[in-house]
């Protein structure tokens, strides 16, 4: 069992490292600079929504790049048409500008803006964030009472963001797990909360009310 867990960790860290190396090439990143996404086969979003999310991320990144050039490092992560913005921008006005750009993208339902007004992070910091994401994902896989692929994990400057359509129990449990990972400074839950009944019948296809909880699970 221990050997199996180590193999799982190695595979996840390798995948996360690949994402991180790609993210280092450009200042704007689709799906987050340190993200390991869910697999379509077991995703709690509909297949159509998953395709929409990919389109949202691509369109948002292109528009932000046109507006901001190389001045900003912005990660765009869409889950069930809710967009999470992480990264760094030079000014508060730039933060609001980026948010408005994303809100204007077709199919976007809401935006959670957690951009830092500060200098862009270093490659070293982004590598650390990628490693943390891999460790959080591996810990979720090892938790036998959770379905790891129900979660999307994003890490920025040691802050872990958890996204997904989950029950209250799953939200609490996943945050506890993420908080226990070395290097995690804070956990922010950006969930859509569903009932146990919805989960049992396969999760309703329509978007659930959004739970934006940036103060949770510190």
Automatic annotation (TrEMBL):
SMART domains: BON. Residues 1-23 form the signal peptide. It comes from the Bacteria. Keywords: Signal. Residues 52-119, 128-195 form the BON domain. PROSITE patterns: BON, PROKAR_LIPOPROTEIN. This is BON domain-containing protein.
